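Input record, target 12 of the design panel.
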């Protein structure tokens, strides 16, 4: 069985790649199996496409089974998979890593209108909006709770969250929710709405 790893923080591109594998498997009439590795005959007597969205499922017993199953195993993760895990995979494993540009990460760490305008020159505004929304959600939880994150990541978010009060974070998240609805219903464009948000809340 071929093993292919798709991971990284650019979930738009990695998911598009996963979707392509699924599309090809359907055309070839392969059996598609989600989140389990079992040595059972294919229902259709064809090869299998096994998709694991939780890489932790793949232990030594499951790796042994993959040697006996015809088809392709795709390990998909919407973040970076630890190198320690990747080293446990066979040398024939193909790994595809999808990373967001450094400019975007620099912007998320310093949410300023000038940085925003630079980022949307090269990146789709829809993706930038999704990343902004995720960042403010994370900042809120870092401010008021104890989210399940690595210590270094939580420490970094807490430092950034110090720039805002709990009330400000709630208001920004509410604004982002309204921007999303207005954009989807055609009442406003994402770019213009985000420009206004930065001038109103983040300048």
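The sequence produced for target 12 reads:
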């Amino acid at each position: 069985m071929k093993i292919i790893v798709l991971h990284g923080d650019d979930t738009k591109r990695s998911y598009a790649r996963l979707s392509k594998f699924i599309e090809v498997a359907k055309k070839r009439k392969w059996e598609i199996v989600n989140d389990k590795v079992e040595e059972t005959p294919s229902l259709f007597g064809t090869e299998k496409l096994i998709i694991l969205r939780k890489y932790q499922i793949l232990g030594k017993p499951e790796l042994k089974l993959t040697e006996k199953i015809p088809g392709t195993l795709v390990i998909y993760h919407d973040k970076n998979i630890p190198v320690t895990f990747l080293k446990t995979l066979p040398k024939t494993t193909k790994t595809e890593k999808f990373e967001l540009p450094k400019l975007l990460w620099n912007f998320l760490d310093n949410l300023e209108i000038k940085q925003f305008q630079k980022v949307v020159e090269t990146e789709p505004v829809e993706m930038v909006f999704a990343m902004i929304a995720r960042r403010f959600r994370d900042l809120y939880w870092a401010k008021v709770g104890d989210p399940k994150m690595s210590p270094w990541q939580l420490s970094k978010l807490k430092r950034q969250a110090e720039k805002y009060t709990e009330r400000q974070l709630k208001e920004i998240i509410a604004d982002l929710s309204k921007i999303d609805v207005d954009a989807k219903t055609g009442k406003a464009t994402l770019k213009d709405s985000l420009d206004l948000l930065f001038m109103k809340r983040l300048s």
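The chain has two domains: 2-97, 102-201.
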